[in-house]
Design brief:
Helix content is 23%, strand content 0%. The chain has a domain of 28 residues. The protein has 53 residues and is an all-alpha fold. The chain is built from 1 helix and no strands. It is flat. This is Uroporphyrin-III C-methyltransferase / precorrin-2 dehydrogenase / sirohydrochlorin ferrochelatase. Keywords: Methyltransferase, Transferase. It comes from Devosia psychrophila. GO terms for molecular function: methyltransferase activity.
Length: 53
């Protein structure tokens, strides 16, 4: 869908991109006083397709 609209994209493993983005922004994904873990949730259905809005 993005390519059809002229938007370039590339596939990046999710965990790597999440940590890379946090590092680039200089933010921590968890705060040691408030959280002991982080959870990543994929936005797709059980059939493996993205929901249409």
């Amino acid at each position: 869908m993005l390519e059809r609209r002229g938007i370039a994209l590339s596939a990046v493993p999710v965990i790597t991109s999440v940590f890379g983005l946090a590092s680039r922004l200089g933010i921590s994904l968890i705060h040691p006083d408030h959280a002991h873990s982080v959870r990543f949730v994929a936005n797709h259905s059980r059939k493996g397709v993205l929901p249409i809005r």
